[in-house]
Design brief:
106 residues, alpha+beta, 5-stranded antiparallel sheet, two-stranded antiparallel ribbon, 3 helices, 7 strands
């Protein structure tokens, strides 16, 4: 599966930097391990460094940077590759965090 399509990359460019928005930043893409419990919610992407910024839900839930290369090469516990949620509808970081606190999957 292609994690970052040209259309998705263009959407990141269109939205631009969101650091001043805090929890109101829009999550543009969701990546997940189908055989694990890690999920990455990307709000920004830098094509020069191939790095995303966003919310990472793993051992802890925190904001941070993660790279496209790492997502492409990583495997879950059963050896499955990370996937992009093809049905993702953009939400704010605040909405994602609320869903995670409630125990639902945004």
């Amino acid at each position: 599966m292609e994690l970052l399509t040209k259309a998705l990359e263009e959407r990141f460019v269109q939205v631009g930097r969101q650091e001043d928005l805090g929890e109101k930043a829009v999550v543009i893409a969701k990546f997940f391990t189908p055989d694990g419990q890690w999920t990455w919610y990307a709000t920004e992407y830098d094509p020069e460094t191939r790095e995303f910024f966003g919310l990472v839900d793993g051992f802890e839930t925190e904001l941070g940077y993660f790279s496209l290369g790492e997502l492409e090469s990583a495997r879950g516990p059963l050896g499955l590759a990370i996937e992009r949620d093809l049905h993702w509808k953009e939400k704010t970081v605040e909405e994602v965090q609320a869903a995670l606190r409630e125990g639902t999957h945004p």
